[in-house]
Backbone:
């Protein structure tokens, strides 16, 4: 095992732990509607900042419009199909309110976000220790808010606490896998295929922000102060991204 891979695995534990910690806090301490709205707005701002700071510049720099279109359309189509499938299933069982419904499209979008984050971390460490360390700190903050957002969404759907925590731990494992791939195998992808992967992630993250996080955040009573946390989350990651 190379020293770079060992370093990646060690630092991967930090965002992984913050994700699980955020999920555990939201799962077992029953936050109120105000807290839920603030966290969802903040998480949306952070994810949107990831798109703007980390993904878009890299995608534009590679300058492969055809492969961007392919990856983006595949990601968009997949997320829309998942959403359509889950909504049909939800409508089929809407008269049975006692049965908890796992928000599949939400969890898939979160899973893609985690995969992209882990991939970015692996690539960051492969390009330099300083970049990897600063990216770890930024992702730790994002993952904490995302862990809370996942727990809050599962709690809203009345998923039992133990099952909810299991989903959170399972999602966190994706980060370890993708960080390892980012630091090893995916570095050997051609420029064309890398563009497809990044564009796929771009569309999935935009879907997560616009169709999941913000929609759920606005289901609660909305106030300007709650909305402001979206821009705070965006600004924090923007500054961290500029520092790397």
Residues:
């Amino acid at each position: 095992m190379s020293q770079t891979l060992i370093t990646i695995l060690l630092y991967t534990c930090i965002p992984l732990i913050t994700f699980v910690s955020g999920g555990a806090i939201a799962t077992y301490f029953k936050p109120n509607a105000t807290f839920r709205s603030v966290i969802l707005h903040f998480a949306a701002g952070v994810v949107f900042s990831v798109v703007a700071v980390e993904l878009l510049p890299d995608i534009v720099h590679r300058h492969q419009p055809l492969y961007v279109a392919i990856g983006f359309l595949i990601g968009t189509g997949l997320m829309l199909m998942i959403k359509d499938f889950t909504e049909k299933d939800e409508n089929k069982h809407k008269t049975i309110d006692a049965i908890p419904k796992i928000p599949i499209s939400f969890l898939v979008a979160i899973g893609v976000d985690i995969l992209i984050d882990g991939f970015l971390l692996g690539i960051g460490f492969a390009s330099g220790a300083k970049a990897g360390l600063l990216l770890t700190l930024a992702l730790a903050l994002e993952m904490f808010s995302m862990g809370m957002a996942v727990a809050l969404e599962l709690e809203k759907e009345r998923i039992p606490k133990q099952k909810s925590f299991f989903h959170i731990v399972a999602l966190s494992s994706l980060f370890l896998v993708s960080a390892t791939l980012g630091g090893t195998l995916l570095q050997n992808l051609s420029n064309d295929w890398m563009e497809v992967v990044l564009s796929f992630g771009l569309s999935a993250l935009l879907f997560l922000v616009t169709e999941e996080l913000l929609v759920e955040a606005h289901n609660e009573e909305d106030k300007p102060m709650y909305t402001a946390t979206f821009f705070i989350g965006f600004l924090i990651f923007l500054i961290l991204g500029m520092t790397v």
The chain has eight helices and no strands. The mean pLDDT is 81. Residues 3-243 form one domain. The radius of gyration is 18 Å.
